[in-house]
Write a structure and sequence with these properties.
191 residues, 0% strand
Length: 191
């Protein structure tokens, strides 16, 4: 997030300022039921979003596109679409790729849903339980431009692990979808 938005802030600072103002206005919005909101928001982020997004992107989009184009192009395309629909395009496209690989490897949506929920839980904790008592959401362009290097450090630490995981688990050209693999396995067991 920091690195992507830092780059964008240099090219189009007014765009980043507008996005940060939008986030800030949403974070400062008072609700009629603050207790209910403080309970439902983390549930939506940690439970509802991972189930919905994994079912949609891996369970439906990846499946349909893989039938049309093959597993590899569908994996890349569905990951890019996943990234485009989130604020951090590059990071979440890679995240979508990793979730797609987990789905193909485990032949189940349960593992990507759990990983997605864990990832969102980390984000929710940083948003809803900050040390200063204020929201941990970045709302200031100057702060973002001064502290982008923290994101770069995290990328440098995690990149070797992510690249290795993608390299080891990237599907072969003749890879089949989990639906068909699970179906053929069930048919073999029944016969």
């Amino acid at each position: 997030f920091f690195v992507s938005f830092y780059s964008l802030s240099l090219a189009a600072p007014s765009v980043v300022e507008a996005l940060l103002e939008q986030v800030n206005s949403n974070a400062n919005t008072e609700t009629a039921f603050p207790l209910l909101d403080s309970i439902l928001a983390p549930i939506a982020i940690v439970v509802v979003a991972p189930i919905t997004e994994e079912f949609l992107f891996r369970g439906i989009i990846l499946q349909r596109w893989a039938i049309k184009w093959g597993v590899r192009p569908a994996l890349i395309a569905s990951s890019i679409v996943f990234g485009v629909l989130h604020a951090n395009f590059v990071g979440l496209s890679i995240f979508g790729l990793v979730m797609g690989l987990l789905y193909l490897k485990t032949r189940s949506l349960v593992v990507p849903i759990a990983c997605h929920a864990f990832n969102n839980a980390i984000a929710a904790v940083s948003m809803f339980a900050p040390e200063t008592g204020e929201s941990a959401v970045v709302t200031d362009l100057a702060w973002l431009q001064q502290n982008w290097w923290g994101g770069l450090v995290l990328i440098a630490i995690s990149a070797p692990f992510i690249v290795r995981f993608i390299w080891k688990n990237y599907p072969r050209r003749d890879a089949q979808l989990p639906y068909f693999l699970n179906r053929s396995q069930r048919l073999n067991v029944e016969s």
